[in-house]
Amino acid sequence: MAKGYNAAIASNPVSSFACIGGGLFGLDISSMSGVLNNDAYMNFFGNPNPNQQGAIVAAMPAGSFFGALLVTKLADLFGRKRIVILSGWIWVLGSILQCAAANRGMLVAGRVISGLSVGIASAVVPIYQSEITAPSIRGRIVAMQQWSITWGILLQYFVEFGCSYINGNASFRIPWGLQMIPAIILSLGMVVFPESPRWLIDHGRKQEALQILADLHGGGNTNDELVQLEYAEICDQVEFERTQGAKSYMDLLKPGIFRRVGLGASLQMWSQLSGMNIMMYYIVYVFQGAGLTGRRGNLIADSVQYVLNVALTVPAIIYIDKWGRRPMLVIGTLFMGFWLFLVGGLQGRFGAWGTVNDAPVWVITGHESVTRAIIVCSYLFVCSFAVTMGPVSWTYPAEIFPMRVRAKAVSVSTAANWLFNFALAWAVPPGLSTIAYRTYFIFGTFNFAACIHIFFCFPETAGRTLEEVEEIFQQGHIFTAWNISRDVGKKNFEEVVKGAKGMDDVHHVESIEEKA
After folding, report:
1. What is the residue-wise DSSP string for 316-331?
2. Percent above pLDDT 90 for the chain
3. Where is the chain membrane-spanning (predicted)?
4. Model pTM above 0.85
C-alpha cells in the first residue's frame, strides 16, 4: 500500500469501483420519483404545483451542469482519482441538507449541491475508467457507469417504497439521509485505486505511471513487452499532443476536435431528449395518466420498470465491445421512438381530461386493456434504452477525445447532458398538465431525429485504444460515417513495435539536431 493503491484490487476489471459515482445520479432520480405521490412530502412542502415541482426536480441537474464544467480544471490540475473522492464528500453535504430541509428553499439548495457532486462524478468517472482499462474491455467498464445509475435508481426506490409505510415526514427524510452511504463508501474506497497513468505521464510522473500500467495489465512486471509498448504509446501520444498548443477551451474549436465535441455533446443531448430520464423521474405521472390508480399499485408498477432497467443493462455491458457503438445507438433510438408513439397514440385515442388529486390530468378511464398496454409499452421503452443508448451515451464521449482536451471535452459533453436534463425536468410536469399525450409524440420525434444523426455522423470506435481512435477521425467521412471500417486504427503487435521504433528514431534525430 506504499504505492497509494492496492494493485490486486485495481487490476481486477470487475472492481470498477469508481462507477459508484454514477450511482449517485440514480439515487437522486428515485429520491424524487418516490415522493411525488407521498402525502407527507406534499403537505410538508406546501403541495407544489407542476411548475414548482419541476423546479425542485430540476435543481439537481442545474447543479450538475456547473459540476460537469468544473471538471475541466479540477481533473487536469488535481488528477482523476482525487476528484472522484471529492465528488463523494460533496454528495454527503447535499444529502444532509435535503434530509434536514425545513422548506423548499433548503431542499432546492441541498439538491443543487448534490447535483454539483453528480456533475463532477458523471464527467470524471468515465474519463478515469477509460484511461485505466484495456481497450478490449473499455466499453464494458465505462458502460458500468450506466449500470450503477440503474442500481442507484432501483435501490433507492425500494428504500422509498419501504419507507412509504411510515407515517409522517420520516417517510421521505430517512431515504434522503440513507443516500449518503454509497457516497461515503465511494470516497473511502477510492483510496485503494491508482491514479490515471495517462494523467501521471502528462504531469511528468512517468515512473509511477509505468508501475501502475504494470500492475493493471502486466502482473506487476514493468518489463512486460505489452506494458512497455503501451507505456511508449501513451508517452508518444502525450508528447505529440503537447506540441499542438496550449491546454485551453480554444483547443475544442480546432479542426478535428470541434467535430468530436459536437458528437460527444449531441449524443448526451439525444440521451436526454430520448425521454428516458423523464420516464424515470415522472413515471408516477405517466402511470397516473394511463389510469393506474392507488399509491401502492403505482409504486409496484414503477419498481418493475426499475428492475427491467437494471437487468437489461447487463447484456449491453457484456456485448458493447462486440456489437459496436453505432448499431446499438441506431437500433435503440428507432425502438424508443416507436414505443413513445404507441404510448402517445393510445393516450390520445382513449384518454380525456380528468382530475387526480385535485389536479387536471389527461387520464384513461374504463379501458383496463389500454392501461396495461401503455404500461407494457413504457416497460419496452425502458428496456430499449437500457440495452442500447444508456451505456453507449457514457462510453462514446469518454473515448473519442485526445488526451490534451479529454477532460475539458468530456465535461462539455456531460454538461450538455445536464443542461437538457435541467430543461426537461422542469418543463415536463407543466407539459403533461397542458399538452398531455402530445408530449410523447415530441420525445418520439426526437428519437427518430437522433437515429438519422447517428447513422450519418457517428463513426464506430469499439475495440481501439484511445490512441488508435485518432486514426478513425483522420479518415474524414463527416457525414458518411458508415464508410469508416471497424478495422481502421487497429494495429497488430508488429505494427505497434514498428511504430514505437519509428518514434524513437524521430526523437533521436531531433536530439542530434538540437545538439548541433
Report:
1. HHHHHHHH-HHHHHHH
2. 51
3. 52-71, 83-103, 109-128, 174-193, 261-284, 304-321, 328-350, 370-397, 440-458
4. no
457 grid coordinates: 455522423
For Cα atoms 494, 499, 501, give the angle at the middle one, nearest 5 degrees: 95
The dihedral through the CA atoms of 84, 85, 88, 94 has a sign that is negative
What are 246-260's pLDDT values in tens digits? 467 777 888 889 999
Which ranges of the chain have pLDDT less than 70?
1-2, 7-15, 135, 244-247, 294-297, 489-516
Q: Cβ–Cβ contacts within 10 Å for residue 515, how many?
A: 6
Sequential DSSP letters for 201-214: HHTT-HHHHHHHHH
Q: Are the CB atoms for 382 and 309 separated by under 8 Å?
A: yes
Q: What is the pLDDT of residue 59?
A: 96
C-alpha cell at position 471: 486514426
Q: Enumerate helices (H) and strands (E) in the chain, giving the number of each.
A: 23, 2
236 Cβ neighbours under 8 A, 6+ residues apart = 500, 503
Q: Report residue 25 as a C-alpha cell.
A: 445520479
pLDDT number for residue 501: 56
CA angle 62, 91, 41 (to 5 degrees): 70
User: Is the Cα dihedral 229, 232, 236, 242 positive or negative?
Assistant: positive
